[in-house]
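protein under study:
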Amino acid sequence: MQMTVPRTICLGFLVLITIGTLLLVLPISTTDKGWGDPLVALFTATSAVCVTGLIVVDTGTYFSTFGEGVILALIQVGGLGYMTANTFLVLLLGRRLGLRERLAIQQSMDSAALAGGKSLILSIIAMTLVFELTGLFCLYPVFNQDYGAGYGLWLSIFHSVSAFNNAGFSLFEDSIVGYALNPWVNAVITALVIIGGIGYQVIMELLTWLRNRIQGNRCRGLFSLNFKVVTSTTVVLLILGTAAFFVTEYQNPATLGPEIPHNKLLIAWFQSVIARTAGFNTIDIGAMGNASLFIMIALMFIGASPGSTGGGIKTTTIRILIACTRMALQGQEQVLCFRRQIPTSRVLKAIAVVVGSGLAVVSATALLAISNPNLSFITILFESVSAFATVGLSTGITAELSNLGKYVIIFTMYLGRVGVLLFMAALLGDPKPSAIQFPEEELLIG
């Protein structure tokens, strides 16, 4: 079997998961110094590599410091992406990037350019370290005051890396509930999550714009269509999510009900940010109403942006579909966005992503419902979407799932991280070009 680029990427993630599982099952990785449960180790390793955050045991009490370090390393490599991490190692060894490596970077980053592979990878690594170190220094004063210098430093490192990579892993038993009303912790965590989930290309474009402004080089039309679509869609989703959670949970006595208005707004903002990318929470997700859970399912399914550490169908995909709908209602054949025409290939890819992702979620939900008949449908659907979109939020049923249900979630997390289209390309191989052109015929729609 030919080792194509999609197969290389998919196999790479499987190798990382296997290594993580073997390390987490070792006695040194658990607090009781006994051999770990293989299923727990596999589930946790998959969740870490796929930067999801779903857990079947409490991370801070089940795993030792070594085990937590393994999880952190898996989150870092998984967040960067297999090809980025692998290419960085190749560069450290002094080897040059070949055409195969450049193609793999192009496909994993969803980029059209092959040039600058080395500089792109180094920029991504440097940017990641800068933001994670910034998050560390911002969180440290709070955790140092509450937990002391040593453990406070470890908590700052772990949560900064977890937040930037949109993993949602926490060493606290109740995630970030203990800091639900702390504006500083909320601001740092949400900022890291947003930056990590907006995509490396958008961040680089913004940094280039800032550099040009500082140097007095006022370039016109500098921002790309990708930048405009990602940023505008992200802002709209954040505002709509905050407003939706604020309204639907306003009087819920188990969530926002007891809080004063500005605290309700702070919690609603946090969950709006987290719902699309990372699995932290400052309220009990299981206590939220069905309306809020359904809104959160929609936000999770949309997810983050291309080239980021987050999952979901991506902000650009939903924006293309909205543009398609608008153009169809106006009787237009061209799909336009910000006065730019979207290529037909991108429109077809967006449709394929949504259809494939929908089928994956439906299949996972059906299997979970069959293997866990005692659980409610809304909680099962929530768990499936959270796993596929690599969000990591849960209503609290993850540990209660049957073994079959846990394996379903493991595969769903993996599928969501590598991507439906990439996974299918790995199974089917590279498409064969065809010179045959079939006749066109009308078809009734709607």
Q: What stands out?
A: The longest helix spans residues 117-147.
